[in-house]
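Minutes, project check-in

Agenda point 3 was the complex the collaborators sent over. CS summarized: two entities, 570 residues total, and the question is how they sit relative to each other. Sequences were read into the notes so everyone works from the same version.
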Amino acid sequence: MPEAATAAAVRATIGDSEFDRDTALTRREPGVYDIDLSAGWTIISAVNGGYLLAVLGRALADALPHADPFTISAHYLTASQPGPAVVRTDVVRSGRSLSTGQASLFQYDDEGREVERIRVLASYGDLDSLPDDVRTTAEAPVIPPMDQCFGPEDGPAPVDGSSAITDRLMLKLDPSTLGWALGAPSGKGEMRAWFGLADGRDHDPLSLLLAVDALPPTAFEIGLSGWVPTVELTVHVRSRPAPGPLRVSITTRNLAGGFLEEDAEVWDGAGRLVAQSRQLARVRL
Amino acid sequence: MPEAATAAAVRATIGDSEFDRDTALTRREPGVYDIDLSAGWTIISAVNGGYLLAVLGRALADALPHADPFTISAHYLTASQPGPAVVRTDVVRSGRSLSTGQASLFQYDDEGREVERIRVLASYGDLDSLPDDVRTTAEAPVIPPMDQCFGPEDGPAPVDGSSAITDRLMLKLDPSTLGWALGAPSGKGEMRAWFGLADGRDHDPLSLLLAVDALPPTAFEIGLSGWVPTVELTVHVRSRPAPGPLRVSITTRNLAGGFLEEDAEVWDGAGRLVAQSRQLARVRL
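CS then shared the predicted structure for the full assembly.
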């Protein structure tokens, strides 16, 4: 079966994939890392906030004694652009089972001065050391089978402008949250999708940081259009994800005063809730 | 009616109350503040995490060009004790409508060296400048009238040890989330209460930071006992609260690997969702 063999051969793996290459950092000195932010993770012309969070998350995984983000909070300060950046990390506390760190990503202005783009605080641990005990009342989102869902490649571009990130994602949106793309938003602040990486790489804690911020804004289904910039995004990684595509469900309940929250849940193929996130974002009314 | 007149006369106000006195800071130099952490906000012997967040929130309100916390994320590093502390703040970015700051609270070890207790990142703005537009699908929690709810004063102490904080709060718990106090936890991770300050002070954005972390742990209703230390707590303040008691609803859906999330919603007397929060906490299984 040469066709299947070829597909298997080109399937990317954790550590050897577009996502890994584009979040790879070069250590300049202890705790300081250089990176060239890829243009491959832009939506319209903005660098995706989840990709940026993964870059900072990878820097902290190197700087801290623990490798897995358990909880990471990011405040987005100024808009990032593709190109050179430096990440500066600080070990706040090293504990036996948890360590806490801080990281900032800077780019350069016309005079070469550093401009801070994002600052994060995070606590890291070892997901594999946790007990297996799960007591959950959370239920996985019900999303139609993938072949009944729709991605950017299935129709005319649902948002203006081209977006490089769509080439790197396997994103299949639940048709019941796609009214906005047909000019008939549901009015409910919900967005659901199957989510993977286009090159077939499986997920790890770092790609979960991307998953929570990669769907179209729930604001589209509320009937708003335009840019919904993130002010703050906090992600809790609750379990190492099983291989295969993820289900991502995002809910907005409260749009008030020009701000909204987006609550994301990420479920893996084994039926585990692997990440929860919440962001505060601005909308133009 | 002399009785009513007396009650009105002793009712504390925003700016002149136990909460304001116990979160008041002395500016040592620009951005650096001294405080004596009050023993009045301890639960068993630990200083309440919401009180500590309010202390840091007040420092940032002074240090930043904006006065209201819109989103504040705290990572709890080591256990705080009543007594002297210093808060060091850093202005990360000053914008027109939002500014971002960082703050850390330190106490002193036996040699007088600073030990960091908590670090926060926060974005501040002006709640009064926001448009009135509200589109929400969130619904206020249904809690029985206050005289059908129960506080620590209504029965034998529900947790071992005395807790000074209960004297400073007006906490009336929904009986349907009080099974744990009678040895019959519901198994559902829910806790709901009417919430106020015992001296009658109305709420402001700073006391909302207290409100989200002042109820008994949801873990009690899941059937767990003991200490549930907060790793990280993020609060979004969405509106300035109206006068009068608040309704606070806390939900835990996913207890896994020795960690759980607590999602809090705070509603004011005018029926507005004034704060949302999520924390990641550890449990002993």
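Noted in discussion: The CA atoms of residues 95 and 265 of chain A lie 28 Å apart.
Follow-up: revisit at the next meeting once the mutant set is ready.
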